[in-house]
Amino acid sequence: MKRRKFIQSAALTGLGLTVGSALTACAEDKKTTEKAALASTNDATKPVRPLVIATWNTPLAVETAAKVMQDGGTVLDAVEQGCRVEEANEKGQSVGKGGLPDRDGNVTLDACIMNKQGDYGAVLGVQNIMHVISLARKVMEDTPHVMLVGKGAEKFAYEKGFKKENLLTEDSRKAWEEWKVKSEYKPIINIENHDTIGMLAIDKDGDISGACTTSGLAYKMAGRVGDSPIIGGGLFVDNEIGGASATGLGEEVLKTVGSFLIVELMRQGKSPQEACEEAIRRIVSKPNSDYKNFQVGYIAVNKKGETGAYSIHEHFSYNLYKEGENKNIKSDFYIKTK
Ligand code: ASP
Question: If we measure between CA atoms, which residue out of 199, 169, 7, 154 comes closest to residue 93?
Fold first, then answer.
């Protein structure tokens, strides 16, 4: 099933579940299974480096990142190269080439990257450049700034030798044409239109880097930017502590500074899993939160190589590379029987 569909069915499942003993028992069984799976991924007696974790079902991206480190590349190279895989995948309609456009038909991309020194680079609302994650890295390494937006970012890309290309594929153009018939813009309800790749990696020495790249919300208002390229929102890395990344409705992640919150909670002693759960609780427990109608998912890793993931709705998953194995794992989630 496509990632967009996952989120859509997540909403329906979340809304459709009624309290019933069979369902509750099923949810409890599942919870136990998920906790057991998590415990086995967090077995401190096993070697945990190198390690790569990324949002959604992204095996090739994660494998690529792991291979970069195995071949002697840096952890920063690993997350950059891993994210490039999804950016180049035209079938993924929420990132890179093939991403769904804004309401005016323009594909605009957002990305950010953080290295082990805590440096950060980001690009926002960039058109015509496929590998915005690499552009974000150039901002971090080759400018005195941390963010470049729109035309300025695009100009900088050409100066750095990036190729201009049309990011709107035929499939995405058709989807946009269909959307225009009604032009219904309900970002809160259209939760199927959110996903992205956030990736965190630890090298054999225990150093951490992270990256995040997306085309954002489908049919967004021109100029809309979500959490993905914003430090502390879609991504945060502190090499002393760990890292976190987000996917889902960026507005909600930003309002709670989700990835920064998770890293700070880990600093205070919470496990990555506990920290992800607390960050989701901050969203759903806000007065008037409409959380039943949108999805947010988090992943996190700490310095020891323990990982965590949590989402509001079912069907969020992540890929984890550890000890030579690359697995897609279902995340635990908040809405079980409501
Ligand atoms: N978080 C991204 C945004 O709001 C979208 C996503 O995760 O798919 O732009």
Answer: 169
pLDDT band at 1; cut points 50, 70, 90 = very low
Tens digits of per-residue pLDDT, 260-305? 999 999 999 999 999 999 999 999 999 999 999 899 999 999 999 9
Element (H or E) spanning 265, and its range? helix 258-267
Kindly report, residue by residue over 84-132, the tens digit of the pLDDT.
999 999 988 899 999 999 999 999 999 999 999 999 999 999 999 999 9
Pairing of strands 197-202, 317-322: unpaired
- Residue pair 201/65 in contact by the 8 Å Cβ criterion: yes
Atom 8 of ligand 1: nearest residue by CA position: 195
Query: How many residues are there in the chain?
Result: 338
Task: Name the residue with the closest Cα to ligand 1, atom 4.
Answer: 250
Query: Does the C-beta of 193 come closer than 6 Å to ligand 1?
Result: no
| Ligand 1, atom nearest to 195 Cα | 8
Q: Whole-angstrom Cα distance, residue 186 to residue 184?
A: 6
Fold (CATH) for 49-333: Glutamine Phosphoribosylpyrophosphate, subunit 1, domain 1 (3.60.20)
* Domain range list for the chain: 49-333
